[in-house]
Design a protein that fits this description.
The chain is of the alpha/beta class. It is 47% helix and 13% strand. The strands form ten sheets. It has a seven-stranded parallel sheet with strand order 10-11-9-12-13-8-14, sandwiched between helices. Strand 3 and strand 4 (451-459) form a beta hairpin. Its main location: endoplasmic reticulum. This is Putative RNA helicase. Keywords: ATP-binding, Chaperone, Endoplasmic reticulum, Helicase, Hydrolase, Membrane, Nucleotide-binding, Repeat, Transmembrane, Transmembrane helix. It comes from Rosa chinensis (China rose).
């Protein structure tokens, strides 16, 4: 051991002496090259080249093997290279045997690759079997300089190993070299590295005691080495802008440049070179030169035997090369251009160096393009993208080739053009496979500084899978007028399955867009200043009952204080626009209390409109406790509309505070002239009015316009209070609802209680990869939040639990979702619409009670979850739009709502929000979040159904009436303020009048074509189809489809297909990954498609309907979609009944009624009727039907039994529990058991051709909601009375009746045209239960028509 140390000391002295004589820069460069070389590894069995020529040949060998193996680590490739070399150097094997042996290692290889292996092997002249293990026999062929370098390198490593275990630490010379950029590769430090260093230092001669001592020393110094290495690496990466490095905290933050380098596997040296030389004005010559400077080519040298061939190549490449022939950059530049041009080489050395280009060119030029793209340099980005395509396709770009001219030529003309007529057809096919896109841009001004551009992309080429694969990528670049800066860029993938569709891209900033006729919107007035007022105490309400409602706090916040007087002490219309989380709900409650105070004697009727159902449920729960019948409430009747017309009319009658969504209130209020309870509304509150500019905003606009018109025509005043987020055009909105300047409050976004909002962009085009990249910063933020708010109980706990697991265990046991149970055990909850309501309530309660610290919420629940937190992280701002087949940005309103959850009332003075988004969207979000944006109307896109409803309600009767109707809308007000947004080219009276007249004429014309309205002499009147569409609240296009598609011979399959293709189902969400699920779902159903397009929402509706009938379970988001399908199906089927009855189709009417029963009870018409019973399965139903002596086939068989007999039978036969028996008992009580009698009035006086009156008396015991646990919501029974002729299959009379305890109904229909007896059938059909329908036959004996004399006598007698 002492001898080894002595030798090491002598070598170190010799090295120090040589180092003093050698220049410092050269010494550092030599050492850096040695450390960075991939051939520097001295592991046993790895070949070490001894000269530059053999080193280049060996690296070429590694490159070829890497191509064959594909993505293997360097150690694997090196091992394979040694094995291949051993085979190639084995002189006892023939070439065929060598190839066979190599194929055992690398799989099958072509002859050309084997020939390349042989040529490379011949150039590796310093390979000796076994020489690499010890290095004993490998030094003979080295020249003096190489030998010295090799010895010096070995000694240097040996000395470093001795230094690690010594006590002197790192000397000044080593530290100085480290600061100059020499770094130990941290990835090399592992157990094997440690073993090698120990072996080098002590030559494997250690006893147990020395080994233990050595281990302690090594373990003591390793942390310092790691810290030093990591700090050094981080400093270099920060210098090259690859990361952001906080030296105090040691925190790393990735940069866009770092992501690009990591994605394309590029060294920091290459990035440093690009940072230094990239300029926006670079030309092609400089771009190719920059590529040649990449560090990936640092080992490429110019050999003497290559110069002659390089001179020839320099004359053949199109891009001039300025470097000298001795410069390696010249060689790389020539090789790149030769690679693109697919040139052949004469010598072998250039062929082997071409491996560098083959391996690296694609990723390097792609990285260059993305770096330039991120910097927004338009001209250079175009050049870099062009270079990417040339490298990818290995061909030069010909800019003077006009493809458009060849598109218009026929195959014969093309053949004549190239003077090869037979090739014309082939050439025509190939030309039309070239990816050609037709572009159309539509510009809409949002503000005076923000434009919205809608780009429509229409593919215009023939897709060939062999040519295009499954998708074609495109870059969409928006440049400024000078073509210097990129304003917006977007990556667009055209997929094979959507080749026949138009694609729409929306963004807010080479297709030239003209602004010649652009009219910018008018300037917006300044916002309302938030005054520095003394906060109002709760006692300002001056009513002990009211003050008791707000016991949780003593005073109102600044926004509430400023609006209090107008809302609570006056009856003016008010608009309160403030950021989310400002306490606007309490502002609405001021108006409710004012209304209650005034109307306490005469009664009150308040309507609150929530934009989405989730928010309506939240408000109903909150106000039920605050204003309802509870111990601390005001004993008011608070109700929430359901969407079922019969139920909602009852709720409207009894409710004092009615909570609804816009669609439900629109369905009830469209017939306001005939509904007195709608006319009695005294206070109308609209929450989140800014959503008038979003999806569904047209309905919100219609109901507000209707209430304003009602207020002007009725005697009683209707006060309108609107709540909104901050708006730029709040003055227009306030004027529209009738708010004066005293009632208009538009606070700026800066008053939000979330003052700290940070936006971090992630520059990754692929959605899935971008979301994956966001997980790390999101996790870091959660850890930071945990550390910031940790308490004594949760300190040291690695999970996010704020209480002990024992405390939370009782709640976890109640969770039905297994994944949710596991997550809650670690203090993390999640909420999405696929969870049951009970699971959602438990998670919300645990989070509010601070049992868990983190809750992950899907974006769709941002409106319906009443949770708040100190920190909100918005992880991604896009969702998948199945209708457009792309990822679309969240509406700004949704994003503002998410931000509003970041502040816990009564706990935080402020909140924090971090938004992780796609990098190109970052600047847009900055503008949207810190500036108030205007809202625009979308009513003109959804005008047909609203005009039809107003025609049915007799509000509109002609063209002038329709124009007058539009003047009440927000659309009319914004038309003059931002004309270009609505495609209006001027703001004069003539422009507006012409625009509105054309809009009304086109709308009425479409309604007339669909047979919803009739136009005669300028008067517009409703037809039967229009009345049906308005009554059932369905689209005019749907009722038109029903009218054209349904026939008297339509069967079950056809009816379901027509139902599924209703326009109401076109809005069903299509999510990624659902196609295969829907395809499997369809194949297992009763009716299936041959080649279903599973991306079509109508096909999805068809599959979900049948899955419901077959009782196939669907989970997650599909269950929510199924709920929407079922709720719409009931209305649509009732409309089908009316359409069929209008045409007199008896069989189709009865079939639609039966399908309505099937939808409610979730079973097919051919299934056992017993499946309607709770807890009954097909097995239990079969057992009941086969029970000896008691064949129970219908529900009525059970209903007719005595209570004890039925209970004993079910207990004995089906082994049911008491709870299950009680459920069945309740169902039997509610199941319709009707006693019905009927008679033909004045049957003896019926004459042919006259009207017959049929009176029906019905009596039943129990009347109530339908017992249908498998239907999504509570439903009232509906019944039809039908008179039909079974011989002619014609329907003569129909009436829809609500069934009470006792009902008396009259039906009128025409007697037969000829005298004599005529048989008819009376049907009594239910829309909710199967097996309770009644069918009765009766006969009418019609006498001969009366003569004119008899008519006179009859008239005289009646007189």
């Amino acid at each position: 051991m002492d001898d080894e140390i002595s030798k090491s000391s002598k070598r170190k002295k010799k090295r120090d002496a040589e180092a003093e004589a050698e220049p410092g820069s050269l010494r550092r460069k030599r050492r850096r090259i040695k450390e960075q070389s991939v051939l520097n590894d001295e592991e046993e069995g790895v070949h070490q080249p001894k000269t530059r020529e053999t080193q280049a040949a060996y690296e070429a060998l590694l490159g070829v093997i890497q191509e064959q193996l594909g993505g293997q680590p360097p150690s694997t490739v090196g091992g394979a290279a040694d094995e291949v070399l051993a085979v190639l150097k084995n002189e006892n094997l023939k070439n065929s045997e060598k190839k066979s042996e190599i194929e055992k290692l690398l799989n099958a290889i072509p002859d050309s690759v084997f020939d390349l292996f042989v040529r490379i092997g011949a150039r590796i002249t310093d390979y000796q079997d076994g020489s690499n293990a010890s290095g004993a026999n490998g030094d003979e062929g080295l020249d003096d300089e190489d030998e010295e370098e090799e010895d010096s390198d070995v000694e240097e490593r040996a000395g470093f190993g001795a230094m690690q275990v010594g006590k002197e630490g790192i000397d000044d010379v080593e530290m100085q070299e480290a600061n100059e950029g020499v770094r130990l590769n941290v990835q090399d430090i592992d157990a094997y590295w440690l073993q090698r260093k120990v072996s080098e230092a002590f030559d494997k001669q250690m006893d147990a005691e020395q080994c233990q001592k050595l281990a302690e020393e090594v373990l003591g110094i390793l942390p310092q080495v790691f810290v030093f290495c990591i700090h050094s690496a981080a400093t270099i990466l920060e210098k090259n802008n690859l990361i952001k490095y906080d030296r105090k905290s040691g925190y790393f933050q990735v940069t866009d440049l770092g992501r690009i380098a990591s994605h394309y596997y590029i060294t920091h040296g290459t990035i440093s070179t690009y940072n230094e030389h990239l300029k926006p004005t670079m030309g092609d010559i400089e771009l190719y030169r920059l590529f040649s400077l990449s560090e990936e080519f640092k080992y490429v040298t110019v050999r003497q035997d290559e110069k002659m061939e390089l001179v020839k190549l320099l004359e053949r490449v199109p891009i001039p090369v300025k470097e000298s022939l001795e410069d390696p950059g010249c060689k790389i530049n020539v090789l790149l251009q030769a690679f693109i041009a697919q040139l052949k080489f004469e010598g072998f050395s250039l062929t082997q160096d071409m491996v560098y280009i083959t391996q690296s060119a694609g990723r390097l030029v792609r990285a260059l393009f993305e770096i330039v793209l991120s910097r927004g340099w338009a001209q250079l980005a175009d050049k870099a993208l062009n270079l990417c395509k040339m490298v990818s396709k290995r061909m030069w770009s010909k800019n003077n080739l006009a493809w458009e001219r060849y598109y218009d030529l026929s195959s014969q003309e093309l053949g004549e053009l190239i003077k090869m007529p037979k090739m014309g057809r082939t050439l025509h096919k190939v030309i039309h496979q070239f990816p050609k896109l037709n572009l159309a841009a539509h510009v809409q001004p949002i503000t005076r500084t923000v434009l919205r551009v809608e780009l429509t992309i229409t593919p215009d080429f023939q897709w060939e899978e062999k040519v295009h694969g499954y998708m074609e990528p495109f870059w969409v670049l928006v440049e400024d007028n000078d073509g210097e800066n990129i304003l917006h860029h977007e990556y667009f993938l055209l997929k094979k399955q959507y080749i026949d569709e138009d694609h729409t891209l929306n963004f807010t900033t080479v297709l030239p867009v003209s602004f010649r006729y652009l009219i910018l919107p008018v300037k917006y007035p300044p916002p309302t200043e938030l005054l520095d007022l003394q906060p109002l105490p709760v006692t300002a309400l001056r009513n002990p009952l009211y003050e008791a409602l707000y016991q949780d706090f003593k005073q109102f916040n600044p926004v509430q204080t400023q609006v209090f007087t107008v809302l609570y002490n006056s009856d003016d219309n008010v608009l309160v626009a403030a950021p989310t989380g400002s306490g606007k709900t309490i502002c609405a409650e001021f108006a409710v209390l004012r209304n209650h105070q005034k109307a306490s004697e005469s009664g009150m009727r308040v309507v609150y409109i929530a934009p989405v159902e989730g928010l309506a449920k939240e408000r109903h729960t909150d106000w039920q406790k605050k204003f309802g019948m509870g111990p601390n409430g005001l004993n008011l009747c608070v109700v929430e509309l359901t969407g079922e017309r019969a139920t909602d009319l009852k709720l409207l009658e009894k409710g004092q505070i009615i909570i609804s969504t816009p669609e439900k209130w629109d369905a009830l209020s469209c017939g306001w002239k005939q509904r007195k309870h709608v006319q009695q509304v005294s206070l109308f509150i609209i929450d989140e009015l800014h959503l008038i500019g979003g999806q569904g905003g047209s309905t919100l606009e219609v109901i507000v316009s209707r209430m304003r018109r009602m207020a002007s025509e009725l005697e009683n005043k209707i006060r309108i209070v609107a709540l909104s987020s901050s708006l730029a055009n709040a003055k227009d909105l306030g004027g529209w609802i009738g708010a004066t300047s005293h009632g208009l409050f538009n606070f700026p976004p800066g008053v939000r209680p979330v003052p700290e909002i940070r936006i971090q962009g992630v520059d990754i085009a692929n959605y899935e990869a971008r979301m994956q990249a966001m997980t790390k910063p999101a996790q870091d933020l959660m850890d930071y939040s945990k550390a910031e708010s940790s308490n004594a109980e949760s300190a040291g706990n690695p999970s996010f639990l704020l209480r002990s697991l024992k405390e939370i265990e009782p709640f976890i046991k109640k969770i039905s979702n297994e994944q949710l149970r596991d997550a809650l055990q670690h203090g993390v909850g999640f909420l999405h619409k696929g969870l049951t309501s009970d699971d959602q309530d438990i998670v919300s309660a645990l989070f509010e009670a601070e049992y868990i610290q983190s809750c992950v919420v899907s974006s769709s629940l941002c409106w319906g979850v009443p949770l708040s937190a100190h920190l909100v992280v918005v992880m991604g701002t896009q969702y998948y739009d199945g209708r457009e087949n792309l990822h679309t940005d969240y509406p700004v309103a949704d994003l503002l709502q998410m931000i509003g959850h970041a502040c816990r009332p009564k706990k935080d003075n402020s909140g924090k929000c971090v938004i992780l988004c796609h990098a190109p969207r970052k600047e847009n979000y900055k503008k949207f979040l810190y500036e108030a944006l205007p809202v625009e109307s979308h009513l003109h896109h959804y005008l047909h159904d609203n005009i039809n409803a107003e025609v049915v309600a007799q509000v509109i009767g002609n063209h002038e009436g329709a124009l007058h109707y539009l003047t009440w809308t927000f659309f009319y007000r914004r038309l003059t303020q931002n004309p270009n947004y609505y495609n209006l080219q001027g703001v004069t009276h003539a422009h507006i009048s012409e625009y509105l007249s054309e809009l009304v004429e086109n709308t009425v014309s479409d309604l007339e074509t669909s047979k919803c309205v009739a136009v005669e002499d300028g008067d517009v009147s409703a037809l039967n189809l229009g009345i049906i569409a308005s009554y059932y609240y369905i689209s005019y296009s749907t009722i038109e489809r029903f009218s054209l598609s349904l026939t008297s011979k339509t069967k079950m399959k056809g009816l379901l297909e027509i139902l599924a293709h209703a326009s109401e189902y076109s809005q069903l969400s299509m999510r990624p990954g659902e196609e295969e699920v829907i395809r499997r779902l369809i194949t297992h159903q009763r009716f299936s498609f041959e080649n279903p397009d599973c991306t079509d929402p109508h096909v999805k509706a068809y599959a979900l309907l049948q899955a419901h009938f077959a009782r196939h379970h669907v989970a997650g988001n599909l269950s929510l979609d199924q709920r929407e399908v079922l709720l719409s199906a009931s209305r649509l089927l009732h409309a089908m009944v009316d359409v069929a009855s209008t045409n007199g189709w008896l069989n189709l009417s009865l079939l639609a009624m039966e399908v309505s029963q099937v939808v409610t009870q979730r079973m097919w018409d051919r299934d056992s009727m017993l499946l309607q019973l709770p807890h009954f399965t097909r097995e239990l139903a079969k057992r009941s039907e086969e029970f000896p002596g008691k064949n129970i086939e219908r529900v009525s068989d059970l209903v007719d039994m005595e209570y004890d007999e039925r209970r004993e039978l079910l207990r004995e036969l089906l082994k049911m529990s008491d709870v299950q028996l009680e459920d069945i008992e309740q169902f039997c009580k509610r199941f319709p058991s009707i006693e019905m009698t009927f008679k033909v009035l004045e049957s003896e006086n019926v004459r042919a051709g006259e009207e017959i009156s049929l009176q029906v008396d019905a009596d039943r015991e129990h009347v109530g909601p339908v017992d249908a646990l498998r239907y999504p919501r509570t439903k009232e029974e509906g019944w039809w009375l039908v008179v039909g002729d079974t011989k002619t299959h014609s329907l003569l009379a129909i009436k829809k009746v609500p069934l009470l305890n006792k009902s008396k109904i009259q039906l009128r229909f025409s007697a037969p045209a000829e005298a004599g007896k005529k048989a008819y059938t009376l049907y009594f059909m239910c829309d909710s239960y199967l097996g309770c329908d009644e069918e009765h036959n009766f006969t009418v004996d019609a006498k001969e028509p009366a003569s004119p004399d008899e008519d006179g006598e009859d008239t005289e007698m009646r007189g």
